[in-house]
Amino acid sequence: MTAAESVAFLWGATTGAHQTEGNNTMSDWWQRETSPGSPLPSPSGDAADSYHRWREDMDLVADSGLTDYRFGIEWARIEPADGFISLAEVDHYRRMVAGAFERGLRPMPTLFHFTVPAWFAASGGWHRDDAVPRFLRYVEAILPVLSDGVERVETINEPNIYAVLASSSRPGDGSLSRGLPVPDPQLSAKMIAAHDAVRDFLRDRLPQIQSGWGISVQDYQAAEGAEDVFHDYVWPRDEVFLEASKGDDWVGIQTYTRGVIGKVDGLPQPLINDRSPVTQTGWEDYPRALGGALKRAADVLGGVPLIVTENGIATDDDERRIAFTEAALQSLWEAKADGVNVAGYFHWSLLDNYEWGTFGPRFGLVSVDRVTFQRTAKPSLAWLGAKAKERLDEH
């Protein structure tokens, strides 16, 4: 890594708006969580109360030595009713951006992270003919937030996972390493169209902003004898989204595990290794998946800068979290040494938060008391901040 690269490298932690803010009452997920007979084990409720405690969250990031913070902007708060833009909520997110800068953090807002306004979902959601223009109307409404010095924007979080699970009751079901269903082709196309539209809109209105999106790219590996069908498996699940990103300023890579793809009756099929340790989400504990995912993404994207916008492990054992992250980062540096253009690393998640139906999986660098909402930094937060400072000091 050169000195110039070290200055630009992003060292951050990530949160999702619905998973941390709490009381996102006008969203489709809130409706799903609170409807009679909901299949979800738990509603988000107050979540981590980050809507009110975002300053504490940012203090934790800045005090650790990390330099960047990725957080979400909730469309359902900005436009709670069709055509009504809440200026108070726009100002709320402007204060968050300003608060990040006050703490020496570079903010990276995410514009869509699995949730939409309830009115939008009830009228057809992304299947509406005018879905992309309606999304752009929301993006236009938050231009005052993005124009306050923001350098990078993530347009859409995991469009491929959304295209798989938009109608599912729970996004997290262990399927990442046990075989991800094929994303709905129509919804995949709509996600790509929405991302392209926002990228072009921002380039026209705020050309200083670099935009990208965060794609779920796991370390899929071809088993011996399955090389000829491997592309058939990975193409609709993530590579079609990578291919569509070749014109982006950067591409986010969100990696947690690997999947070994074999061939059964001439078709690609994930091979299950029940002997490997798994995390609280049921995913194989395989930290070096990060390097493999980065290399596969680079094979598609060439020199487009890659930013790891999510990587982490669900565990109550913080020493295991540190060991996982250290091995994942080592694989990142090896990929970078092999020529992969990696521009940043964001850990998922800053907080133990709501994981789409449950508070069970613990991804956080910080624990949150479910009654008082008191934040308690785990040793892994200081460890990651020290790693960031060490790398920056080296260069």
UniProtKB/TrEMBL annotation:
<keyword id="KW-0378">Hydrolase</keyword>
<dbReference type="Pfam" id="PF00232">
    <property type="entry name" value="Glyco_hydro_1"/>
</dbReference>
<dbReference type="InterPro" id="IPR017853">
    <property type="entry name" value="GH"/>
</dbReference>
<dbReference type="InterPro" id="IPR018120">
    <property type="entry name" value="Glyco_hydro_1_AS"/>
</dbReference>
<protein>
    <recommendedName>
        <fullName>beta-glucosidase</fullName>
        <ecNumber>3.2.1.21</ecNumber>
    </recommendedName>
</protein>
<keyword id="KW-0326">Glycosidase</keyword>
<feature type="compositionally biased region" description="Polar residues">
    <location>
        <begin position="18"/>
        <end position="34"/>
    </location>
</feature>
<feature type="region of interest" description="Disordered">
    <location>
        <begin position="18"/>
        <end position="48"/>
    </location>
</feature>
<feature type="active site" description="Nucleophile">
    <location>
        <position position="310"/>
    </location>
</feature>
<comment type="similarity">
    <text>Belongs to the glycosyl hydrolase 1 family.</text>
</comment>
<dbReference type="InterPro" id="IPR001360">
    <property type="entry name" value="Glyco_hydro_1"/>
</dbReference>
